[in-house]
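It is worth pausing here to work through a concrete case rather than discussing structure prediction in the abstract. The textbook approach is simple: state the sequence, then state the predicted structure, then interpret. We follow exactly that order.
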Amino acid sequence: MKYRLLAFVPLVFALVLGGAALAFPGSQETVLTVQAESGKLLDFIGCLAAALAFERGDYLSRAWFTYGSCSLLLVVKDAIGEGGSPTTGLVRGLVVLAANTLLAVGVFMLARAWSVAGLVDDPKARARRRAMFAVAALASLAVTGWPLVHDVQSLLGGRFEALVSIASDLGDAVGLALLAPLATTALALRGGVLRWPWTFITLAGVTWLAYDVSSGLIDHWHVGPGLALVGSEALRGAANLFAFSAGIAQRLAVAPDEVHAAS
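Step two, the predicted structure:
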């Protein structure tokens, strides 16, 4: 039951804060800022809790810490502020690039946890996994390809702030391509509590995909800017909280006695 409750945490987080932003338009910017920053911090806290459930240097400890460090760096990026100088834009871009690099490495490590643990040695299963990865990679290019080209053109045109978008595009591309391996790992672990962390991480990736796709749909449907911003931030917050739930689920599965003692 506790794992199923964790599935509702991201939805409640997104609905409550998104509803507050719509209900109090005069405070919308403040509410959305709280949503964005608290979501990133909770993302990191959940992943840190998962990392600390293992011994220092353990493969999964490194994987969870690497994955969660992305959100912490994005908080640092927000603290820098947008500013107006090219230097500020370059620094923000480099921080986002580092954050998305950590995200890509962390997702890759979590996605191949099945291999490191020796969960699946069947050649057919490996072939099926590679095929799923290929399909996911193509879908990733379809979603992030054009924005990436556009942002690269902006950077070549002298807009250093475009580096932030390029880093995000590359991180999204890798993360979306690894959705299939993550889902395969969750399926390989079905029947046990360890399926929950990978299920939630997969859902985080799916929500990020929805976040990326939503920008095009919002333009197509001519959604008002206020409602569009609330909707996109709700998806971003839900993605962060699915990562939080994944980390807490991992902690519960690996060190349940410690969690109960702390409570």
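Step three, interpretation. DSSP finds eleven helices and no strands in the chain. Residues 61 and 243 are 15 Å apart (CA to CA).
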